Amino acid sequence: MKRTTIIDIARSLGITPSTVSRALAGNLRVSESTRKRVQEKALEMGYQPNIVASSLRRGKSDTIGMLVPRINRHFFSHVISAVEEILNPAGYNLLICQSHEKSELENQALQVLLKNRVAGIIMSHAMETVDFEMARKATEERVPVVQFDRVNKEVPGPRIVNDNFSGAYMAVKHLIRGGYSRIAHLTGSLGVNVYSERHRGYRYAMEEASLDFDELVFEGAITRETGYEKALQLVKQHRVDAFFCAGDFASVGTIQAIHDCGLRVPEDMGVVGFANEPFAGFITPQLTTVEQNAYDMGHRAANALIRVIGGQIMTGMDQEEVVPVRLLVRESSMRATVNNK
Amino acid sequence: MKRTTIIDIARSLGITPSTVSRALAGNLRVSESTRKRVQEKALEMGYQPNIVASSLRRGKSDTIGMLVPRINRHFFSHVISAVEEILNPAGYNLLICQSHEKSELENQALQVLLKNRVAGIIMSHAMETVDFEMARKATEERVPVVQFDRVNKEVPGPRIVNDNFSGAYMAVKHLIRGGYSRIAHLTGSLGVNVYSERHRGYRYAMEEASLDFDELVFEGAITRETGYEKALQLVKQHRVDAFFCAGDFASVGTIQAIHDCGLRVPEDMGVVGFANEPFAGFITPQLTTVEQNAYDMGHRAANALIRVIGGQIMTGMDQEEVVPVRLLVRESSMRATVNNK
DNA sequence: TTGTATGCGTTATCAT
DNA sequence: ATGATAACGCATACAA
C-alpha cells in the first residue's frame, strides 16, 4: 500500500492537488472551510508530506550537514547537541558525518553532504587536513560553511573558535605564579589552529616572565600514550618542573609519568591541561585545565549559519567569533604553600 | 550560477541525459568510450549528483534515521559512531535526532524522519515514553525500525538489548560474595525495560542468597543528585551495607553520601554501578560497574537494519538480540580482607 | 478562491 | 548502444 500523497487527498475531496498543497502550506488564498477539510482529511489519511519531493521542487533543503572528526568525543557531541538546540526549532535537521580525523574521509563526507543538497554545513576539520579545497568548493557552490574549533581561513564564511590563546596564557601564567618556571609544553601539530594558538599563549606568558622555553615545546605529544612517553623522558632528565599540555589526555599520561618517577603532583611538578574532559575533575590529583564551552560554541555556530542562510552576512566576509574560555584551577597545579591569587 | 546537472553534461557532449545517467550509474549497456567521456566531463564540470532528485525518482532513500535520547551521552554517542561504521560503507548516511528524554519530542522526531522518507530507523526510547504508537506506525508505513537499549515489544522489528539481567545478577552476587548482605538497589523507573531487567537480576541474586530486599528497592534514584539523597537517607538509618545502583551517576552520588556520613567505601559500604561511564575508573574509589559494549550494540543494530531492509528478516518477526556485558571489579566493592574469587 | 500547467533532476521503460 | 518519454510528489506562475 502506497503512502498517501496530496493527490490522494485531492481526489477524495474532489478538489485539485494545488489547492491541497496550498491549504497544507497555510496559504491565505484558500477558503477557511476547504483548509479545514483538507487538514482533517490529511490527518485521517495519515498523510506525511514528502520532504524529498518538496525539497526538489523548492530547490532548497531543510537539512544541515554537520561534519566532525568524531561524534563520540565529549566536546564534539556537546557541540552537536547545542547546534541541534538552535537548528531544530528553526525547522532544520542534522545530517551528521565523521571524518575520523582523516582528510580523505573528510572530503568524502563533504561530497556526501553536497550530493544531499544540504542547506549549509557546520564543520570542524580533521587534524590531518591541510588542503581545504573541498570545503571552499562547497561555499563556491553556494552552500554556506561555518567552521568551528579547528578552522582555516582559506575557507570563506564564519569561524567560531575558542579563545585558545588566552586559555593557554592563563594556564601558563597560573603555573608561573605557582612558582614553577621550567614549564614544558606538550602539544599536537602546530599546523592546526587550536594548537598553534595555545602555543602562542604559552610563548607569550613565558616571554612575559622572561622564562626560557627554547627546548621545551614538543609536538606530537597529545594522546595519553605520547604524553606519557614524552613526560617520562623529560622528568628523568630533570629538565622541567611543570607541564602545560594542550589536551587533557596528554595530561593524564603526564601525571602518570611523574608518579612513575616517584614524584608528586603538584608538590614536585605542576600539570595543567586543556579541554576539561569529563574525567578531569575526577582523577587524582584533580586536573587544572582550561574549560571550553561546547554549548556556547554550538549555539554560535548554528546562529551564524542561520544568519548566512538568511543572507544577513556577506558571503565573502571573513568573520571570526571567539568564544571565551575559563581556567579551572584544581589540585594538579596548586602547591599548598603558594598563594595563588 | 546553477549547479551542473546531467542535462548540462548531455548537452555539452551532444548526447541525451538518459545516456549520461546510465554512464554515471555504471550501466553496462553503454559503450566504454562514451562512459569515459561522460565521467571526464562530469569531473571537469564539477558535477555532484542530486540525491534528492534521485531518491524521489527511485522511491527510496540512502539516509537512515537515528533517534536517541541525547547525542552527548557517552553510551549513545558511541552507539551512533558504531552504527555509522557499518552504515557508511553500505552507502547510507545518518539523519540524527534527539528526544531529550521527552515523549513528545520523540514523536516529533519520528515524524521528521518519516517525512524525510528515511530508509529505516534505529532508535532508543526516551525514559518517559509509554506510548509506542508512533514507532509502530513507522513500521506500518514500511519503514523498518530497529530498537536498541531502551526497547519495547509493542514495536515490531529487531531489538538489541544489553544483558541487563545478567549484569545486575553478577553485580549483586559479587557484592554478596564480598560479605555484604543488606544491599539496596537504587534505580530508575521500572517501567523502562533496562531498569526492570536490572531489578530482576538484583532480585534473582538476592533471593538465591536468601537475602531480604523488600524495603530496599528505590525507583527515581538514578541521577547523581537523587542517588545522593536516597543514599544519605539510607546510610543514616543504618539500614544497608551496600548499594547496587542501576547507573554510574547514582553511584557517584551514593559514594559521596557515604563519605559525608563519615564512612568508607568499600570498607564500610560497597557500591556497584552500571554503565561504566568514562569517569568510573577515575573516581576515588574506582567504581566497580557493569560495562556495556556500545560498539557491539551499534554494530548489531546497524546490521540488523541492513538485514531488514534487504528483506532477510520477516517483518512481523519478533527478534531480540542480547549483547553480553561484563562486570568490571574495581575498588568500590573490594574489601581487602575478603577473597573475591 | 480555485484550477491548469509546468518543472525541479533523475531514472526506468520502451522504442530504435 | 542510445534516444524519447514519462513519472516520482510537490509548489508555483498564470489563468479563470
TrEMBL record, chains A, B:
Superkingdom of origin organism: Bacteria
Keyword terms, alphabetized: DNA-binding, Transcription, Transcription regulation
Pfam family, one: LacI
GO molecular function, one term: DNA-binding transcription factor activity
All residue ranges annotated as the HTH lacI-type domain in the record: 4-58
Family annotation (PANTHER family): HTH-TYPE TRANSCRIPTIONAL REGULATOR GALS, LACI-RELATED TRANSCRIPTIONAL REPRESSOR
Repressor as UniProt keyword: no
Bilayer-spanning residue ranges: none
Name the UniProt record assigns to this protein: LacI family transcriptional regulator
InterPro entries reported for this sequence: HTH_LacI (IPR000843), LacI/GalR-like_sensor (IPR046335), Lambda_DNA-bd_dom_sf (IPR010982), Peripla_BP_I (IPR028082)
